[in-house]
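Dissemination and training. As part of the outreach component of the grant, students in the summer workshop were shown how a complex can be specified as a set of sequence lines and then modelled as a single object. The example used during the hands-on session is reproduced here so that future cohorts can follow it. Participants entered these lines:
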Amino acid sequence: MNFDFSEEQNQLREALVRLLDRGYEFARRKQIVASDAGWSRDIWRQLAELGALAIRLPEAHGGAAGTAIDTLVVMEALGRRIVVEPYVPAIILGAGLVSRAGSDAQRTRLLPRVASGEQLLALAHDEADTRYELARIATRARPDGTGYVLDGQKTVVLGGGAADTLIVSARTAGEPGEPIGVSLFLVDTHAAGVRRHSYATHDDHRAADVTLTGVKVAGDALLGPAGGGLPLVEHAIEQGIAAVCAEALGVMAILVDLTASYVKTRKQFGVPIGQFQVLQHRLADMLMRVEQARSMTYLAATTVDSSDAALRRRITAAAKAMVGQAARFVGQQAIQLHGGIGVTDEAPVSHYFKRLTLIGMTFGDADHHLARYSDLMARGPTPAPRA
Amino acid sequence: MNFDFSEEQNQLREALVRLLDRGYEFARRKQIVASDAGWSRDIWRQLAELGALAIRLPEAHGGAAGTAIDTLVVMEALGRRIVVEPYVPAIILGAGLVSRAGSDAQRTRLLPRVASGEQLLALAHDEADTRYELARIATRARPDGTGYVLDGQKTVVLGGGAADTLIVSARTAGEPGEPIGVSLFLVDTHAAGVRRHSYATHDDHRAADVTLTGVKVAGDALLGPAGGGLPLVEHAIEQGIAAVCAEALGVMAILVDLTASYVKTRKQFGVPIGQFQVLQHRLADMLMRVEQARSMTYLAATTVDSSDAALRRRITAAAKAMVGQAARFVGQQAIQLHGGIGVTDEAPVSHYFKRLTLIGMTFGDADHHLARYSDLMARGPTPAPRA
Amino acid sequence: MDLSYTADEQRFRAEVRGFLQTNLPQDLRDKVLGGKHLGREDFVGWHRILHQRGWSTPNWPKDFGGPGWNAVEQHIFDEECADAGAPPLMPFGIRMVAPVLMAFGSRAQQDRFLPRIRSGEHWWCQGYSEPGSGSDLASLRMRAERRDDVYVCNGQKTWTTAAQHADWIFCLVRTDPTRRQQQGISFLLIDMKSPGVTVRPIVTLDGDAEVNEVWFEDVEVPVDNRVGEENQGWTYAKYLLGHERTGNAGVGMCKRWLKAVKRIAAEQRAGGRPLIEDARFRDRIAQVEIELMALEVTHMRVLAMELKKQAPGPEASILKVQGSEIQQTLTELMMHALGPQALPFQPAALDAGYTGALSGPEWAVPITGRYLNHRKASIYAGSNEIQRNIIAKHMLGL
Amino acid sequence: MDLSYTADEQRFRAEVRGFLQTNLPQDLRDKVLGGKHLGREDFVGWHRILHQRGWSTPNWPKDFGGPGWNAVEQHIFDEECADAGAPPLMPFGIRMVAPVLMAFGSRAQQDRFLPRIRSGEHWWCQGYSEPGSGSDLASLRMRAERRDDVYVCNGQKTWTTAAQHADWIFCLVRTDPTRRQQQGISFLLIDMKSPGVTVRPIVTLDGDAEVNEVWFEDVEVPVDNRVGEENQGWTYAKYLLGHERTGNAGVGMCKRWLKAVKRIAAEQRAGGRPLIEDARFRDRIAQVEIELMALEVTHMRVLAMELKKQAPGPEASILKVQGSEIQQTLTELMMHALGPQALPFQPAALDAGYTGALSGPEWAVPITGRYLNHRKASIYAGSNEIQRNIIAKHMLGL
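and obtained this result:
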């Protein structure tokens, strides 16, 4: 039992912190999100140079074959600077899916270019009625010669505007809600019939709605087994959950720091407001929530690469529930303790709060995951998270 | 719209307060609960003399034909002294049922003696598997000549040990869980085949388990329509809910008072602990919960006599949910703020806490009623509580 | 005890409702209910419609041209307006400065300002908060130096709602810097068109710009525009703060939002069924519905005290705390009901008549921003921490 | 990072589990798991069984006759004991006074007392709290006047757990009344059989009597029974308080209670089905199960710090707060699972072998009393308010 990071992990963290301290101050971030693309290819290139984009990729394709602990290190660092570049959609979801499910040809074609930052992927899965129920997919893929034709509408595709290639889930069989029959396809975003409406999200990230109208893809666009895509999507979302939990740790650590500093300097009634016991206890509660969230995030990171799908499902549900609850409390109280200044666009705290709020709403909110955990519990004893 | 109590109600309150100030100090209460019976016939007689037992009874039978507002006045006063005499089981449930459902003969036989304090009633309804689902009754009553024979087991019958006559619910038709087929019977506690195991509850009230083995009752023991007893029980429980909500107001008011006094005198670190802002805010939160609970209790009291069963059902569910939540918070925090002394038998605060805790568990806990309210909401729009 | 409205009160409600059905323009109603941006003309237009009926100043006594409604009638009016989707009446003129002028203003000030507040000619804003003050209002620093018949004002106000639209601002200023805290403060009425007044918008976290900084640089204010006596401004401000807090429960708006939550939960689907059929989500609605029901009765209890001329004191703090928390719960529930569709930020679609591309349904657009923005509800008008201090001190003697 | 136990640790766990299966008497296990009253003989009997195996002092180093386990091994031992239903080891001797004696006691004191603590011959209790002190421990008033070779002690201690069973008590006493607060306090070991010692039980709200007042009237204590230097007792007490708080998470007990909640919810019926099939009730179990899972990892993180000889500081306060709140949630859930059957108060049935009449199942008897009694968990060993003060001060610099 140890909670230590490896030498390489510590070096990676330090390199990221150096990069972001230099190139991602709050003012620079403002410029980036105000740009047309809403993110910086330059930062992306620098992340590639650090090896941060390739850390989880197979060694055969230029990666470092890292683990979810490596992802945790990266995401926590990105969270501390509320980095808007599409790391989760492109690397965790997109590249992760290709790494786990791709054929040799697909991996050889895509992953080295992912590692170098030239190829951006995104997972186009959610639809208007999906909410957080992954099986509720209505987009259709019908066979067409040796290939397929795709029709459907995908909503709020994270990083969908930046992506070069979409991983589109579509039914080759079954009806919305059924677990079997979902297949994944690699779709070039410039293919005929693909229309994207790209927009900002409240946290200054970007997402897109994607309409697929008679989009033709070749047979080798199929990613993973025909009809067996749902478990792949589920595992990708679990990896995404572990990643955003780690990101939330970084965001929350900064919020606690910002708030503690603020109450030490802000004076009311002649004293720093940090001398008021109610605010002291509020901050103590924030800190405790962060520590509990940290513990669950560590547990998720050490579980999410497991081949035991039932275990992954339970632990990521538990982690997202707890981190979501912590995120809600820490975010709201950070604003409350900042007072008026906390609800201004000018103050960094409001941007950390917004990112934290949207992390809470991404991949299922706390209530959803608590219910999911509860329902899984009804079906059998919780497997021990550890031996 | 007014929140005023009538002249008579104010007089009744004052008379009760005088009686209990004199005859129900904490030391006297201790003696009463330590007695074999666990309650005082003397106090009961004095309540009768004040008219407090007859306030809701029909005028034709020696009552004052009062309303649930009168009950509120009585219960809040009883709550302030955590009176253990069986007012809710004997008067609210028992006499209320006979008043509403009894034949002239039954009312004439029982109610004047209820008013004078000579006749104690109790409702024997719950069984091992009932929990809070009123229809889950397995006790059977089979016709026997012009009468019935009753067999079954009733649990945690409030005031069941003190009662002269039990109102026993039993199935003349249907299966446990079905709404139709429950009938009510007046059963003399000394009838052959009635066995009672009486015990104290954690709040120093008394209850009993009742076993009915081939208990024969005459045809005129049937209270209300055969097979139509469940709506009567439901209305009785709603009256009980309104009553214990009002009692909880009295209990909580004292707990806030005791706690505010305690923190003003108890010194730690050289100052009264009431100077610590965290404790000030905790007390402010307690007070707010009490005020919100008071509002819902007023609403329940002005609703529970209505002939609109759907309205009664919703408002009493809402009231019990909110009062239950307030009771939990106020009780727990009263103990917390008293520190060690709060968990001793010697301190009155612990006895108020225990009564409040058990009120929370009586007639359904807060979660049960929130769920009930929620499920009723799913079936249609909430009727406006007011015009 | 009787919680139902009297026949007279019910008739009054019907009258208000009828008026709103006939006179509230449909496009305005749609904007309000759709959560669209409202401009100056929207507020002023509605104010003028009410003025024609004599209802633009619901809290004013007849002596000053108001309708002379009692507390319950005012509550019924507010509730019906909120339910119908009328724009809120801006409080700064009618509810804040007007009561101060009625109580402490000169006859000349009353004659000059009150009719113009009533008619909507003058739009007012409030100059209390300063950077560095906040909950500790008495620490304000804006200076007003007397020179002959004018005060020369220098300083800065902040969090000034709608200052960009305002004709006048009422300010607390320090007229005697030698005295500390509450002493040495005066209450001035300042024309926003005065030379030296600058308004700078503060963009809030939802991208909106409803609050402002207001800068004063050698702004000359006639001594006649001082309300009451010099250095006694704190007395008037305290009077006004009491007024500000009483109506903060926001029951009417909360009831409209609760309806909205239910409508959204009926439209959104989860697991192939309407979200409202998910008992867990519905339980959250049930919880806040019960809290709101209790708050409404608590509010009525305060109104009943007002009817009897018992000044509501710390009870107003309870309304503020509970009301703001319920508002925040409702805005959060709306956001959660949206699920992933809560993410898109589409401010352009908040302008009425927007016809561009849209992610998700149009009614969903304002929801997340409203949640983010309403974190302020527990901060402004005396933070909920300050309110709890008040409750502990005045109701519990701590 | 690796959260799994090493092969060695797993072997150790198996060894402990095997020992418990063989050596924990079934009747004792039944009493513990059934929530029955435990008497002195139950605790001492189990202590002696452990002593035979050399495990009666899990936290002691080998030098003093302990097993020399590291923090993780101690945790595994605690967890297995809790899971098996072993009576808890009374902490006052082995965890409280012993570490102080090891660090500050004389060789003679160590030789006299430590072996008897280990063997179970001496049962200790703790004389810290006084009426009027509490969280403000340093305000204690019990006097010890030096007369030749003895201290003459007068005063009162309170909340003394198990004093009725104890052979010895360690006390903080005021040896120099002229010095204030933390100064002038000494640490004395007092034989409970000394003339002038009186024990009076304090009945708690659940009807139990596990805590006591202890009165001292001219009790003579040999100067040799003072630990360390005169007037330096506060230093030793602080050292001990740190030790007391570390283990307060109570993860092992919580895990057993969580199992119990699930078992109860599977047995109780609601709407004709097992209560655990009610999603709403199950959600509450799920919530606390997740919190406990996180607490266990947090506890492991603290253990990992201890393994590296990093003294756990304010982190121990987090464990105390979270642990006590989870304990309270679990006791409350058990009570709520009972429904109406939570009401009966049947203390006689808490004695093993009770054969009288009973309302409800026997296993339900201890549940409501446990809920009531465990309100103390957020009060004792430094109230949760004090812990939050510590966290704010030491971890946040406030």
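Residues 382-387 of chain B have pLDDT under 50 and may be disordered. Students were then asked to discuss how this feature might be tested experimentally.
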